[in-house]
């Protein structure tokens, strides 16, 4: 009796087992099946170029709709996917899906895809990116890869080689969440990133006093002197927009402009933008 019960889905909810641990198990088990069950989807959040005054890029963000748990946050399931290695398969799905979708957008709009450091352990990452670009027809120059700081990146020859080979394809490399890790600055020295994305915690602190403005100003200056473009994440208010614009920030992303939206809504947004650009052209 005990044996057959042990194999049912309910064996995760063993009496006395910590609730967090139980949830973790359910997530881990569910993730293994998420792709085949078609439970993953991408949403896209616009990045607005302040010089161009238009949407220049969309960041692809992963969503998981689970039958019982509802929509699970990536903050919750990505770490588990990384620990179990499932991120490799999931990351490949994200990359392919993002490039396929972006290939239907206008030629001056890029897509940004988040990569986990675990994906760099796989020597074939460069080949995978090249194959997905070929298969989807998306030009390499329209793909940005976002990487967060992590120990794995530190002075790792193989990772650096992979980054250089991706760059050689024409792909852009962005440093995500800049300023949150303890070695942000040394990463800038180890690889010539194309873009620095300033973590949204600095934006959130802007309104309260503090030194966030000084830090944002310094990071933008640093980026520019290193020939890197700068993006402010988490821009939610006009005041924050004005502050980063005044400092010469190149690009903004945040709820002020738009939350992440579905692929259909992206097409609608791009149509509205094209209509607006046309009107501006006619008027001038
Ligand atoms: P991230 O790459 O830094 O993505 C930005 C996150 O900030 C997104 O959360 C986005 O919804 C949120 N955000 C954007 N604008 C605002 C704003 O104005 N205010 C606030 N409060 N939040 C804003 P999301 O979608 O929950 O993703 C969380 C993190 O999960 C991402 O942070 C990224 O590190 C990771 N992630 C998401 N999708 C993927 C993926 O496909 N692969 C990997 N490896 N990681 C992913
Ligand atoms: Mg990102
Ligand atoms: Mg980010
Ligand atoms: Mg973040």
Low-confidence runs of at least 5 consecutive residues = 1-10
Provide the succession of SSEs.
HHEEEHHEHEHEHEHHEHEH
Helix content: 40-55%
| Arithmetic mean of pLDDT | 90
Query: Helix count?
Result: 11
What is the overall shape? globular
Distance between the termini: 80 Å
Broad structural category:
alpha/beta
Beta-strand fraction estimate: 15-25%
Report the bound ligands by name, code or SMILES: ligand C2E, magnesium ion
Q: What is the radius of gyration?
A: 21 Å
> How many DSSP E strands?
9
| Widest beta sheet: strand line-up | 1-2-4-5-6-7-8-9
Describe the largest sheet.
8 strands, mixed, barrel
Protein name: EAL domain-containing protein
GO molecular function: catalytic activity
Organism: Paradevosia tibetensis
Name its key features.
46% helix, binds magnesium ion, 8-stranded mixed β-barrel, binds ligand C2E, 11 helices, alpha/beta, 284 residues
Report a brief summary of the structure.
By secondary structure, this protein is an alpha/beta fold. The chain has helices at 2-7, 19-34, 74-84, 87-102, 125-136, 157-169, 184-190, 200-206, 212-225, 238-246, 263-283; strands at 40-49, 54-66, 70-72, 110-115, 143-148, 172-178, 195-198, 229-232, 251-252. The protein is globular, with a radius of gyration of 21 Å.
């Amino acid at each position: 009796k005990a044996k057959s019960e042990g194999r049912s889905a309910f064996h995760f909810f063993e009496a006395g087992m910590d609730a967090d641990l139980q949830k973790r198990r359910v997530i881990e088990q569910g993730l293994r099946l998420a792709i085949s069950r078609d439970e993953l989807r991408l949403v896209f959040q616009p990045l607005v170029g302040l010089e161009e005054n238009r949407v220049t890029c969309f960041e692809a963000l992963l969503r998981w709709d689970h039958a019982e748990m509802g929509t699970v946050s990536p903050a919750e399931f990505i770490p588990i996917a990384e620990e179990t290695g499932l991120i490799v398969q999931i990351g490949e799905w994200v990359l392919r899906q993002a490039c396929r979708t972006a290939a239907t957008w206008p030629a001056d709009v890029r897509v940004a895809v988040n990569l986990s450091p675990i994906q760099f352990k796989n020597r074939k990452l460069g080949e995978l990116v090249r194959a997905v670009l070929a298969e989807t027809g998306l030009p390499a120059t329209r793909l940005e890869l976002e990487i967060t700081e992590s120990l794995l990146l530190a002075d790792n020859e193989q990772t650096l080689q992979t980054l250089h080979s991706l760059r050689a394809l024409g792909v852009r490399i962005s440093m995500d969440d800049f300023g949150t890790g303890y070695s942000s600055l040394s990463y800038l020295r180890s690889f010539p990133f194309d873009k620095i994305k300033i973590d949204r915690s600095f934006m959130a602190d802007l309104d309260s006093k503090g030194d966030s403005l000084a830090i944002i100003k310094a990071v933008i200056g640093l980026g520019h002197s290193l020939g890197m473009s700068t993006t402010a994440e988490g821009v939610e208010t006009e005041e924050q927009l004005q502050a980063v614009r005044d400092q010469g920030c190149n690009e903004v992303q945040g709820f002020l402009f738009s939350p992440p939206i579905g692929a259909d809504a992206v097409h609608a947004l791009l149509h509205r933008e094209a209509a607006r650009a046309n009107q501006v052209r006619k008027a001038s």
